[in-house]
Amino acid sequence: MNRTLLASLAAMGALLGLTLPARAQTTAADSAWERKDTDLAERLYSQRLAADSSDVMALRRIALLRAWAGRYGESIALYDRAVRLAPADEAIALERARVLAWSKEYARAIAALDEILARSPRNRPALEARAQFTSWSGRYGESAATYNRLLEETPGDPEVLRGLARVASWRGDLAEGERRWRKVLAASPDDVAALVGLAAVLRWQGRDAAALPLLARAERLAPQDADVREQLEWLRVTMAPRTAPSVVYESDSDGNRIVTTSISGAWRPRPRLELRAQGYFRDVEQTLGTPFGHQVLGGMLTAWTQWEPGWALSAGAGASSSDAPDGSPIPTARVALFTPVAYPVKGSVSVSRNAFDATALLVRNRVVTHEIAASAYTSPLRGWTLSGGASAAGYHGDEWNRQLSGNAAATRLLRRPLTLGVAARAFGFEKDLNEGYFDPDFYGIGEITASVYQEVRKWSFGTEIAPGLQQVGSTGKRTGAFRATGRIGYTVTPGRQVGVSAGLSNSGLHQLSPAADADYRYRAFSIFGGWRF
Fold this sequence. Notes:
By secondary structure, the chain is an alpha+beta fold. 38% of the residues lie in helices and 38% in strands.
């Protein structure tokens, strides 16, 4: 046998020795992948990659497995290697963009998609991913434009219709979101994603009873679906019996010290009917002059109901009694009507009768208020909220006194968590009486407000500062005003929270006693909780 033949056989043997195990390993790795045996698949693909560092398929599969495990940095590094090995493969670039989006690096993900679309403007998977990722990052206008472009190419595409419904819902246009989800369901009544999406929009509107049958139907169709189970859990939390205890300590420079311990609770015997109870014990003391104090016990029972498309009515009755002379119970009541949250302008009207028992002097004088009030708010542009309200009230101790009040505010969410705004409020009393309450013929205040609210895991932090100008009395001078509040909350489990809050102010809005002290100061501290069962 000559040398050439021997060399050929040796080369063939070497080739067979290398090739056969690789093929077996490839088959085993792919089989494990198809069986969804992720641990075995990753081990076998890793062996392939160790044998051949240019194995693009092994790189892709390992990268995806790392992404599923939440190891996004490692996954993206592997995809970067795969892209360098196969720069023209748009599928690899698209997978890399998806992992970037999963890791919440939306700007990089969208930029990666734009590179694909620059080469292939009609790449539908890339367009669909761009519509999705821009919605995840809050760029709703871009997302809707891309979805509408896709819809022109394939009218009636369910996934595109679902995407448009999500965009409308997430940007806060709940009425449009509801309309679009119902359109998807009209074409496909058993679309689980649409059932879940519509239920979520209804729940965000406070229409829990309307969301319940949708989720029950989705659960029958897909009992193991994670989104169905998550929405059902949120709905159960929302509709569960709840209680909210609090202790509030207040004091001011007029010598008022007020400690209020309260607890409220609610229970739904039916999805559209809720029974609410509230009770409080108040210890009030006047420390200036001749000190004296009283104790007050009060409460109210309320029934709340709702009907489609989200109108709500509440009506309650109660009483307040004290240890003051002639501290017989004072009847209290309140009726309120609320518009649907999905309406462009939301609002409420209420009629109430309350015991004005905030200070020792007010308790002793048995001051009662009767009020009719209306309020409304709207969001004409994303991030903007305009609100306002007006009321007419009667205060009665020994003599009737009428009060008129109005307020208006505009706020703008600049960038989470910061909101800026302006607010104004004015009220005035018909008479100047000595009944124990702050009753100027005119009080006005204008404020610039800045608030921050942030959630970090189970913690929540909120603060608001509001400098402004105020005027006490129609002939009074304008003086500076300032108020600040802060709160810290901790969520034990969904629907179960505890926290503390504090506030201080020199604003006449908080003034209770009749003295018009230019150096007025108000302070408050509270411990609160909320528990759903």
